[in-house]
Write a sequence for this structure.
C-alpha cells in the first residue's frame, strides 16, 4: 500500500540539453540530533560510541560509519545514513527524512547557477569539496552540500521542493541543462 | 547589505535573518502571577517603551535561513557598523549570572 | 553645413561591419564599435534632443554616462526604454532609437515657444505657479505640465526581456579600468588576490582609449589587459556599472548584455545585477570634465574637450570645420594636439594669462581669453572671444567648441556610505573625504591627473589591498607608457562674461541656468540642498554629473563663501539609472515568489481540486465533484461532513516537535491554559498570547510520551510560532531542557470528519479498535501500517465526530488514496478549504480571520481557559483595565435577519438607530451560509459582546453602499453541548 512518493513526482521532464545536469537524489534518510542544555558532553560521547568521531566545525561534513555528519549548531547535528539513539535527558532526535527533498546540480557552471540564488561564496577557497551551508534560495531555506568538484546537492523543504525545482530549471536555462 | 556574523554559520547577508527586537532590554521575570503595580509597569515598559540610541546597540536576530539560532548583535545605529555577535543563549546565561 | 563627419581612417570602430539602425524611423548607418551618439555625429551631428523645460535644441555634449542632452527612447512597444544616453548605447543592428521631448520633431518643436516664456519658467516655477493659492491648483495643472515637460515614456506593457540577479564575492574589487584601475588590478592580481575589475564602458582602458590605435599608450593598455585576462584569479567585467556602495562592503554591479542579442527564450539575460561583497575596494573611477558656463553654452556643437578627443580617437569622428578649444586648465591641450596631429584646424582659447610653453608648442593659442558667445541655434557656426575686461578679442568660425572647465572626480561611490567629499584647493576639485579601512582610491578620482602619477598610485593601491589580505606575492613593477602627459592643472573660472544676458546653462538636462541660481539666492534658497530642490539642479537622470560643481561654485560666489563652506549635496546610489527589472531579476511571473504545496497537491490537481493562494501555500479550495464554483461547491461539501463523512487535507497546519525533560513546563508557560499535567496519549486545545496579551495563535498539542509533544499551529502563524518558541528558549529561559523542531514538512495530515468518520477509519485500518473506549475524544493512537507510522488524533474543527490522521509526507498521498478507496462504500469524498472554514464558523471556532493581532483571549471569548494559579506569556498585560472593560469588543455570532440579502466580511456594525458614521461598534470577521440554520451567519467582534445577545443591529458595507440587519447570538451556532464530538 505504501510507497515513498517524491514531491517532484511527475515534474522531472527532460531539459533542453547542455553542460549542466540537474535532478533529484532519492533513497536517503536524515535525522537531526540536538543536545539538551547542560547535557552536551554526555550526548556527544553517546554519539561518538555510535557513529565515531564527530565534526567539530560548522560547515564541513564528515563521513563515518556509513553516515554523513554535519555540525549545524551548538551540539546539533544532521545525520544522514542511519538513526542514532540518545536518551531523553541527553538530547532530542527528530527524523527529517520526509521533510526534505534533495535536488542536485552538476556541471561546470553549477556554482554560478547556485550564486544566482544563494548568497554564498562558492569559490574553492571558501566552499571546498565537502563544504555545506544552510542558507536560502528564492526566500526558502536550503542546505547546500558540495559533494563533488562540480556537483552540489540542495536539500529543500519538501513543501517548497517543486517551486525550487522550477527555480533551478530556470536558473540553469542560460547554461543549458539535462535532467537525470 | 548588512552582513551579520552568525556565531555558528559565519558571516551572512542580513536577509537570511529576521530581526527580533531590542536585546539591551531585560524581560521582567517569569513566575508568580501578579498583575498590578510594579509588575504591570515592568511589562508595560518591556512591551511599549523603547530607547532609540545613537551608537552601539544590541539587538536580537534569528538566522532563519540558516541554523535557526538566535543571536545578539551589537551594531552601531549611526554607522550601521557591525561590532560583535554572541549566541543568544550564552548571552542570556551570562546575563542571569550574579 | 553638417558639424561633424567620419574620418576615412582611424578609430576603434570596425569598418568591415556596417550596422543599420533607425532614428525616428529613418534608416541610418554606423559601424560596429560605435555608440548611438558617435554614429549620429558621424552622420553630421546637430540636434538630437530638446531640452526639458525650454525645448531648446541640444546636441551630443559628452561621450559618457554623464550625457545630459542626447537622451533617446530605445525600442518600442513592450521593450521601449526611455532616457538612454546615446553615449552609452552601443550601436547594435536594428536598433530603433527615437528622439525625445520634441513634437512633431526635435528639429521643429512647437513647444520651443516655451523659450519665449522663459521668464515665467524660472526657478521655483512649479511652486509659485501651480501650488497655490488655490488648494487644488497642482491637481488641475499637473497632467498638462507632465505632458509638456516630460522626457521619454516607459512602456506600460510587461518587459519580455530577461533580467537576472546574482550574488558574488571577491577579495579585491577595482572600480574603473583607466590607467590607475588597470595598474591596481595588475598589482593586486600579481600578488595573488582574487580580483574583479569592473568597467562601465564596453572596453577597458578609460582615458587610454583616447590614444590612437597602435600608439605607445594603446600598446600599454593592450599589454595590461592581456596580462589580466590570462590570470585565472581575475574577472574582467565590461559594460558593468558599479551603481552603489552599501553596508558591509557590498556593491551593486549592473552589467549590460544587449550587445549579445540575448534571447529570453534561451534564458539569456539582457542585464545582470550582481550583488558583490568585496573585502577590499580600490576606486579608480576617474573624473568627469566640467563644462564652461557661457552664453548659449548649450548649442549643438559645444562639447566637452575630452569627449571631442574620444570621438576623434575612438570613433574617428571629427568636426567638419574648424575647432575651437576653450579651457581653463592643461587637460584640453591633449585634445588640441590630437586634433592638430589629425590634420584638423584648431585654435585654443585659454582663460589663463600664462600657459606652459611645452603645452602650447605648435598650437595657435589665445591666452587670457573669454568665450562670450556662439552662433548657430542648430549647430555652432562661430564663436566670439573677448578679453578678460570684456573687450572684443576675435570671432572665429567654428563647428566644434570643445570646452574644459576643469574636472570633477567621480567621488560618488566613495561617499555612498556617508563620507562627504572634501574640497581640494590645489586641484579645485572635491576629492573623496576619507575612506573606510578597506577602501582606497587612485588616479583622477584622487586628483592624480598626470598619467604616471595615476599609474603609480593605482599600482600601490592594488598591491596594498592584496597585502592587507595576506597575499605576499611579488607584484613586480609597472612602468607608465612613454607618452606626453598633460595633467589638469588650471585656474578655475566659473563664469564667462555674459554682456547680453543670454542663457548660460549649468544643468543642461533640467534647463537650470546661472540666472536660476542667482534667483534662488535672491529668494533665500541658498543652501546647496535648497538650491537643488528649488531649481531642480542635479535632479535629472544624469544627477548633475556635469553641473553640480559649477552651480555650487556660483552659489558660493554669490554668498561670498568658499566652495567647501557652501558644501555639496549628498551622493546616493545608483550612480547611473538602474532599471527596476534588473533589481527584480528573475523574480517575475511564475517565479515572483515561492509557492508551497501540500504532499497531496499532485493528487488534488489530478482529481478536481481547485486551488487558492493562502500565504505562500496553494491550498485546495474546493473539489469539482461538489460544484463548478466555490460558492456552490462548499455547501455540498459541508453537507457531506454534517451528514456523512468527508476528508480534508490539513497538511498545511504548522507542526512542531517539542522534546525534553522540561517540555511540559515550557508548554505550560507558552499556552494560557495548563499543559503540565496533560496525560500521555491526550491532546489539548491551547491558546498562546504575545507579551502584550494579544492572541498569537491557537492549536492542539498532543502528548506522545513523557517528554515528547506534537504541537500544531494555524497555517498562517506557523513560522511566527516557531520563531517565538525558539526565541523564548534561547533568550528568556535558556535553562529549560527543551528542543523544538519544525516538522511541518515531515508529516502530511488529513481530517476525517462527519458522523461516519469512525466507520471510515475502521474501514481504512481494519481490525483496529477505534471505539470511544480505545480512542476517546482528544485521545491519540500511534501505530504502524506496513512499517509506516500513523498518528491518529481524535479532535474536531468542524464540530462533528472527527479525527486527524498524520503520516510521513512521502506516504501521505498513498494513505489518502487508500482511505478514499476503503471508505468508498460510505460515500466519503474530499472537501476543501472553503467548506472547512465554513464548518468551523458554524461551530464557532476562531481562526486567522478572527485572530487578527488586535484581539485578546477575552475578546475571543476564551478568557475562562486561562490558568488562574500559573504564570503564562501575556498574563500581566492581559489585565490592563481597558482590555478588561465591559464595553470592549468581544466575539459574538450574527444571524442575518433580511432574507435575500447577504452578510459580508468586513462590514461595520452599528446598534439599531445609530448614525452610520465613523468606525462603528464592531466588525464582521468571518461569514458563511449555514446549512444547519439555512441562513447567513457570521462571527464578529462587537463592543460589549454577548451583553447584546438577542439585539438587532445594522451591518454596514460602505463599499457597496449596503446595509442589512442582523441579530446578535452566541458564536456557537450548532451543538452547543458538544454531543456530536463525544459519540
Amino acid at each position: 500500500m505504501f510507497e515513498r512518493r517524491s514531491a517532484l513526482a511527475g515534474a522531472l521532464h527532460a531539459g533542453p540539453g547542455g553542460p549542466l545536469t540537474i535532478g533529484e537524489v532519492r533513497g536517503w534518510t536524515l535525522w537531526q540530533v540536538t543536545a539538551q542544555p547542560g547535557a552536551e558532553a554526555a550526548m556527544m560521547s553517546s554519539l561518538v560510541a555510535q557513529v565515531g568521531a564527530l565534526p567539530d566545525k560548522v560547515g564541513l561534513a564528515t563521513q563515518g560509519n556509513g553516515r554523513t555528519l554535519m555540525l549545524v549548531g551548538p551540539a546539533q547535528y544532521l545525520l544522514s545514513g542511519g538513526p542514532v539513539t540518545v536518551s531523553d535527558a541527553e538530547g532530542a532526535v527528530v527524523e527529517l527524512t520526509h521533510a526534505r527533498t534533495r535536488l542536485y546540480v552538476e556541471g561546470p557552471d553549477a556554482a554560478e547557477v547556485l550564486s544566482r540564488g544563494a548568497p554564498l561564496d562558492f569559490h574553492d577557497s571558501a566552499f571546498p569539496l565537502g563544504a555545506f551551508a544552510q542558507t536560502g534560495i528564492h526566500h526558502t531555506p536550503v542546505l547546500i552540500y558540495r559533494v563533488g568538484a562540480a556537483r552540489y546537492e540542495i536539500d529543500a523543504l519538501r513543501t517548497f521542493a517543486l517551486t525550487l525545482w522550477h527555480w533551478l530549471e530556470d536558473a540553469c536555462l542560460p547554461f543549458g541543462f539535462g535532467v537525470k | 547589505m548588512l552582513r551579520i556574523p552568525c556565531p555558528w554559520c559565519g558571516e551572512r547577508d542580513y536577509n537570511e535573518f529576521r530581526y527580533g527586537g531590542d536585546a539591551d532590554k531585560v524581560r521582567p521575570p517569569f513566575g508568580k502571577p501578579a498583575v498590578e503595580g510594579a509588575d504591570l509597569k515592568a511589562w508595560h515598559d518591556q512591551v511599549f517603551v523603547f530607547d532609540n540610541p545613537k551608537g552601539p546597540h544590541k539587538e536580537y536576530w534569528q538566522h532563519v535561513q540558516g541554523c535557526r539560532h538566535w543571536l545578539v548583535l551589537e551594531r552601531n545605529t549611526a554607522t550601521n557598523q557591525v561590532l560583535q555577535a554572541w549566541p543568544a543563549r550564552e548571552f542570556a546565561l551570562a546575563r542571569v549570572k550574579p | 553645413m553638417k558639424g561633424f563627419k567620419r574620418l576615412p581612417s582611424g578609430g576603434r570602430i570596425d569598418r568591415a561591419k556596417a550596422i543599420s539602425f533607425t532614428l525616428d524611423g529613418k534608416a541610418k548607418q554606423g559601424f560596429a564599435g560605435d555608440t548611438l551618439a558617435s554614429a549620429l555625429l558621424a552622420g553630421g551631428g546637430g540636434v538630437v534632443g530638446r531640452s526639458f523645460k525650454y525645448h531648446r535644441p541640444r546636441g551630443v555634449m559628452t561621450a559618457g554616462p554623464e550625457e545630459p542632452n542626447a537622451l533617446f527612447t530605445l525600442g518600442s512597444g513592450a521593450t521601449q526604454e526611455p532616457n538612454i544616453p546615446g553615449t552609452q548605447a552601443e550601436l547594435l543592428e536594428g536598433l530603433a532609437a527615437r528622439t525625445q521631448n520634441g513634437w512633431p520633431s526635435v528639429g521643429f518643436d512647437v513647444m520651443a515657444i516655451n523659450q519665449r516664456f522663459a521668464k515665467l519658467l524660472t526657478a521655483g516655477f512649479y511652486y509659485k505657479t501651480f501650488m497655490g493659492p488655490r488648494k487644488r491648483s497642482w491637481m488641475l495643472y499637473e497632467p498638462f505640465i507632465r505632458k509638456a515637460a516630460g522626457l521619454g515614456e516607459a512602456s506600460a506593457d510587461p518587459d519580455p526581456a530577461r533580467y537576472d540577479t546574482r550574488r558574488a564575492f571577491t577579495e579585491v574589487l577595482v572600480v574603473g579600468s583607466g590607467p590607475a584601475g588597470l595598474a591596481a588590478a595588475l598589482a593586486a592580481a600579481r600578488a595573488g588576490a582574487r580580483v574583479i575589475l569592473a568597467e562601465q564602458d564596453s572596453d577597458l582602458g578609460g582615458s587610454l582609449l583616447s590614444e590612437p590605435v597602435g600608439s605607445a599608450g594603446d600598446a600599454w593598455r593592450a599589454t595590461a589587459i592581456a596580462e589580466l585576462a590570462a590570470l585565472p584569479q581575475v574577472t574582467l567585467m565590461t559594460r558593468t556599472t558599479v551603481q552603489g556602495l552599501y553596508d558591509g562592503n557590498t556593491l551593486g554591479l549592473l552589467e549590460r548584455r544587449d550587445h549579445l542579442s540575448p534571447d529570453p527564450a534561451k534564458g539569456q539575460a539582457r542585464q545582470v545585477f550582481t550583488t558583490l561583497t568585496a573585502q577590499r575596494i580600490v576606486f579608480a573611477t576617474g573624473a568627469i570634465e566640467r563644462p564652461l558656463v557661457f552664453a548659449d553654452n548649450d548649442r549643438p556643437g559645444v562639447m566637452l574637450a575630452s569627449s571631442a578627443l574620444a570621438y576623434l580617437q575612438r570613433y574617428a569622428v571629427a568636426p567638419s570645420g574648424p575647432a575651437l578649444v576653450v579651457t581653463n586648465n592643461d587637460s584640453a591641450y591633449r585634445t588640441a594636439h590630437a586634433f592638430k596631429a589629425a590634420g584638423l584646424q584648431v585654435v585654443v582659447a585659454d582663460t589663463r594669462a600664462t600657459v606652459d610653453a611645452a603645452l602650447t608648442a605648435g598650437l595657435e593659442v589665445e591666452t587670457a581669453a573669454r568665450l562670450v558667445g556662439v552662433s548657430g541655434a542648430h549647430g555652432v557656426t562661430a564663436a566670439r572671444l573677448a578679453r578678460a575686461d570684456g573687450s572684443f578679442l576675435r570671432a572665429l568660425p567654428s563647428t566644434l567648441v570643445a570646452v574644459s572647465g576643469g574636472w570633477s572626480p567621480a567621488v560618488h561611490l566613495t561617499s555612498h556610505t556617508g563620507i562627504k567629499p572634501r574640497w581640494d584647493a590645489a586641484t579645485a576639485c572635491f576629492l573623496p573625504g576619507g575612506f573606510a579601512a578597506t577602501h582606497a582610491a587612485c588616479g583622477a578620482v584622487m586628483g592624480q591627473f598626470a598619467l604616471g602619477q595615476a599609474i603609480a598610485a593605482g599600482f600601490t593601491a592594488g598591491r596594498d589591498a592584496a597585502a592587507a589580505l595576506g597575499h605576499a606575492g611579488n607584484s613586480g613593477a609597472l612602468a607608465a607608457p612613454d607618452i606626453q602627459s598633460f595633467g589638469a592643472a588650471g585656474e578655475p573660472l566659473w563664469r564667462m562674461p555674459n554682456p547680453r544676458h543670454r542663457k548660460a546653462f549649468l544643468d543642461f538636462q533640467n534647463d537650470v541656468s546661472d540666472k536660476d541660481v542667482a534667483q534662488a539666492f535672491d529668494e533665500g534658497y541658498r543652501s546647496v540642498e535648497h538650491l537643488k530642490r528649488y531649481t531642480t539642479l542635479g535632479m535629472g537622470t544624469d544627477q548633475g554629473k556635469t553641473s553640480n560643481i559649477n552651480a555650487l561654485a556660483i552659489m558660493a560666489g554669490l554668498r561670498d563663501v568658499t566652495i567647501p563652506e557652501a558644501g555639496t549635496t549628498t551622493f546616493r546610489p545608483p550612480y547611473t539609472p538602474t532599471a527596476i527589472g534588473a533589481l527584480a531579476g528573475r523574480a517575475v511571473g511564475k517565479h515572483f515568489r515561492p509557492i508551497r504545496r501540500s504532499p497531496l497537491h499532485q493528487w488534488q490537481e489530478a482529481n478536481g481540486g481547485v486551488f487558492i493562494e493562502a500565504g505562500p501555500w496553494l491550498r485546495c479550495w474546493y473539489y469539482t465533484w461538489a460544484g463548478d464554483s466555490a460558492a456552490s461547491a462548499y455547501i455540498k461539501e459541508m453537507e457531506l461532513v454534517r451528514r456523512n463523512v468527508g476528508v480534508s487535507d490539513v497538511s498545511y497546519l504548522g507542526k512542531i516537535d517539542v522534546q525534553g525533560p522540561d517540555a511540559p513546563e515550557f508548554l505550560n508557560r507558552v499556552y494560557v491554559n495548563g499543559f503540565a499535567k496533560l496525560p500521555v496519549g491526550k491532546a489539548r486545545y491551547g491558546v498562546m498570547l504575545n507579551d502584550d496579551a494579544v492572541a498569537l495563535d491557537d492549536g492542539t498539542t498532543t502528548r506522545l510520551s513523557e517528554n515528547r509533544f506534537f504541537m500544531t499551529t494555524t497555517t498562517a502563524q506557523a513560522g511566527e510560532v516557531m520563531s517565538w518558541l525558539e526565541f523564548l528558549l534561547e533568550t528568556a529561559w535558556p535553562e529549560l531542557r527543551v528542543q523544538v523542531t519544525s516538522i511541518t514538512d515531515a508529516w502530511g495530515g488529513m481530517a476525517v470528519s462527519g458522523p461516519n468518520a469512525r466507520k471510515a477509519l475502521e474501514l481504512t485500518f481494519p481490525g483496529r479498535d477505534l471505539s470511544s473506549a480505545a480512542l476517546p475524544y482528544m485521545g491519540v493512537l500511534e501505530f504502524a501500517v506496513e512499517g509506516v507510522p500513523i498518528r491518529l488524533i481524535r479532535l474536531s474543527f468542524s464540530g462533528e465526530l472527527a479525527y486527524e490522521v498524520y503520516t510521513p509526507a512521502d506516504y501521505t498521498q498513498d494513505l489518502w488514496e487508500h482511505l478514499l478507496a476503503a471508505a468508498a462504500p460510505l460515500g466519503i469524498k474530499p472537501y476543501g478549504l472553503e467548506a472547512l472554514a465554513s464548518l468551523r464558523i458554524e461551530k464557532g471556532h476562531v481562526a486567522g480571520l478572527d485572530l487578527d493581532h488586535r484581539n485578546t483571549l477575552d475578546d475571543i471569548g476564551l478568557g475562562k481557559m486561562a490558568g488562574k494559579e500559573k504564570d503564562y506569556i501575556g498574563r500581566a498585560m492581559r489585565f490592563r483595565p481597558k482590555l478588561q472593560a465591559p464595553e470592549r469588543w468581544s466575539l459574538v455570532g450574527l444571524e442575518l435577519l433580511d432574507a435575500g440579502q447577504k452578510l459580508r466580511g468586513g462590514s461595520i456594525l452599528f446598534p439599531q438607530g445609530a448614525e452610520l458614521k465613523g468606525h462603528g461598534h464592531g466588525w464582521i470577521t468571518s461569514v458563511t451560509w449555514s446549512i444547519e440554520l439555512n441562513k447567513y451567519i457570521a462571527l464578529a467582534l462587537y463592543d460589549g459582546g454577548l451583553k447584546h445577545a438577542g439585539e438587532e443591529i445594522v451591518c454596514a458595507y460602505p463599499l457597496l453602499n449596503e446595509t442589512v440587519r442582523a441579530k446578535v447570538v452566541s458564536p456557537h451556532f450548532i451543538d452547543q453541548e458538544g454531543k456530536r464530538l463525544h459519540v
